Every structure is written in structure tokens, then in C-alpha cells.
Amino acid sequence: MIEVVSFGFLHARVPRAELVVDLRKHFRDPHVSPALRELTGLDEEVRATVIRTPGVPPLIDALAGVASGYLVGAPELPTRIAVGCAGGRHRSVVVAIEVAARVRKLRGVDVRVRHRDVRLPVIERGGR
Questions:
Q1: Are 84 and 56 spatial neighbours (Cβ–Cβ below 8 Å)?
Q2: Which terminal residue of the chain has fewer beta carbons within 10 Å of its beta carbon, N or C?
Q3: What is the pLDDT at residue 124?
Q4: CA triplet 8, 50, 69: central angle to 5 degrees?
Q5: 117 vs 13: CA distance, rounded Å
Q6: In which residue ranges of the chain is pLDDT below 50?
Q7: pTM of the predicted model as reported, rounded to 2 decimal places
């Protein structure tokens, strides 16, 4: 079983995981756009914005590959991949969903997605 967890670094501790991915510095935050700030990665406008961000599609492919490697290494053990951004509402949600979708294409793989912080209030801050 693979679990992909999205979370926000600014809300609580990093979830326990075999792999933790930090999206904060390398990928533009949709939070900086007033039109997207109150939306989440579950909304199509945010999803499209994150997917169009340079570097995000190859990162998603690479993370799906890493998950596949864990499945080969010890398929009987659960594996958790934690994907974090600042607030856990935008980038991490989209990346978690997309990674899970790619891994699900593998036969016989149970993939779960959990969004730890997506429903928490927006954290007012600067962003890039």
C-alpha cells in the first residue's frame, strides 16, 4: 500500500514518511494570486496553475517512479510519501493527487491520498 499525504509545513510537524518532499522554495505558490488564495488544489483553477508550473510535471513523474521503487523493494510494507508546501492547500494537494494517479496505474497497488491540512484556514503570509 502507498499513501500519499499532502500537508503544510506552517501548520504542524512533518508527517512520518519514507520520503518527504518540500515544494516551498522551488515552485511558485498559487497563494500569491488573490484569485486563487482561498481555493485549494481540489479546485480546477489551482490544479491547472500548479500543473503548468515549470518543473512540476517531471517532479510528479519522478515521485511516481520513487513510489514504484519502494513497491519493488518491499511490496508487503506500507509506504508513505509526504508532500508539503507552506500551507498544505495548493501545491502539495495537486502533486499528491497526481502522484497517486500515476502510481494507481500499476496493477494491484492500493494507493491512498490524504490531505492533512487542505481544510485549514489560509495562513496570511508572503510567497513566491
A1: no
A2: C
A3: 78
A4: 75
A5: 11
A6: 127-128
A7: 0.94
Q: How far apart are the first and last CA of the chain?
A: 34
The rounded Cα 12 to chain-centroid distance in angstroms is 16
pLDDT for the residue numbered 107: 64
Task: Give the bridge partners for 77, in sequence order.
Answer: none
Burial class (CB in 10 A: 0-12, 13-18, 19+), 117: buried
Residue recorded with cell 496505474 = 105
Q: 111-115 and 2-8 as β-strands: parallel, antiparallel, unpaired? A: parallel
DSSP one-letter code for 31 = G
**Alpha-carbon distance 80 to 64, whole Å?**
12
* CA nearest neighbour of 52 among 86, 103, 91: 91
Name 50's bridge partners: none
